[in-house]
Amino acid sequence: MKQKLFDKFAELFGTPDGAHFYFSPGRVNLIGEHTDYNGGHVFPCALTMGTYGAARKRDDRMIHFYSMNLDRFGVVEASLDDLTNKNEYNWANYPLGVVWAFAEKGYNLDTGFDMVIWGNIPNGSGLSSSASLEVLTGVILTDLYGITDLSMTDLALIGQYSENNFNGCNCGIMDQFAVAMGKKDNAIFLDTNTMKYEYAPIHLEDAKIVITNSKVKHSLVDSAYNDRRQECTDALAALKTKLDINALGDLTPDEFEANKDLITDPVQLKRAKHAVYENQRTIDAVAALRDGDINKFGQLMNQSHISLRDDYEVSCEEIDILVDLAWKIPGVIGSRITGGGFGGCTVSIVKNDAVDTFINDIGKTYKEKVGHEAEFYTVDIGDGASRID
Length: 389
Ligand code: ADP
Ligand code: MG
What we know:
- Belongs to the GHMP kinase family. GalK subfamily.
- Its main location: cytoplasm.
- By secondary structure, the chain is an alpha+beta fold.
- The protein folds into 2 domains: about 1-200 and about 385, Ribosomal Protein S5, domain 2; about 205-380, GHMP kinase, C-terminal domain (Alpha-Beta Plaits), CATH 3.30.70.890.
- The chain has helices spanning about 1-15, 95-105, 130-145, 150-165, 175-180, 220-240, 255-260, 265-290, 295-310, 315-330, 355-370; strands at about 20-30, 40, 45-55, 60-65, 75-80, 115-120, 185-190, 195-200, 205-215, 330-340, 345-350, 375-380, 385.
- The strands form 3 sheets. A 6-stranded mixed sheet has the order 5-4-6-3-1-13. A 4-stranded antiparallel sheet has the order 10-11-9-12. Strands 2-7-8 form a 3-stranded antiparallel sheet, with helices on both faces.
- Helix 6 (about 220-240) packs across helix 8 (about 265-290).
- The protein starts with a helix and ends with a strand.
């Protein structure tokens, strides 16, 4: 990969001399969905799929971005003297947003840079190619400009800040955190209320993590995401009239049941129920994993899907087809929607000897029912973003 990127870099910017090589992963969330902006727990892991970058400082104030995935945009040119989101920058608004966020936090770059990227995360499928690109940019900036007082957690927060405020997507912290802090063969148990986290080794000796891409993305995804956030905020406000809590993630299911009548709106009630129970499921799932009880982990994944489908209402027909088919296959330990919803991917834990059947049977039936192919990735858990060379 490095050679391919450096060849392109040389073609565009003269020589690759002095450029460095970086990698930033995508992520999949195993359980704990739509809890990260509710002060709950999440349990994502970084993937070995990700975004690669080559970058080098320039002598002037220009910034040049090029994506080998999106050649049609050519070299996108921006200036340090005009850090604003522009439609014509298209995808480059993600890395430019990180430059802007650095400046907002007091890290003003003196000169610009050239950056070429290529990634193998399917875009817009819930595997966080945007967070991957943001954290990649953060790592590049700290490395090129010798910024030593920003931790990887800071880079995650800066990535989220830029996605929220430069690119208008109100995402929680999970994606950037997983991408920045990922560790090979481990998932990250993160409490988004306190930002405390622990690594949990994933030793699936006789099973694999299989991601299934529905290859659909329904257009309501962004607006529905913001609606869900608002519904949870309103439910929390109703609970706060009596309870001293900061977030839905502060409540156990029992506490929620004892106080849920404070929420009079039935839709808000369902959303809050999901947030509270999903948080508990995530805590229970990590405990099950530590006990070596992978079957319980799988059952909690399945319950997570049902809650996201019925109470949080972020699934869709295509995803439900994939999950229903998965649940019927012997050797499937658990299967659920992953990511924001309304399309994208499912994540399943599948016994090694059932993986071929999983891919063949689901692939065939999905095509018959939906009319196009699903894509399957048998994934490995990799490290977080870093400079490689
Ligand atoms: P997700 O994060 O789930 O993959 P998003 O819609 O949040 O989906 O982010 C996808 C967007 O991120 C793409 O449309 C593109 O603008 C940008 N992006 C991600 N990876 C790349 C890449 N390799 N090259 C160019 N743009 C990319
Ligand atoms: Mg994204």
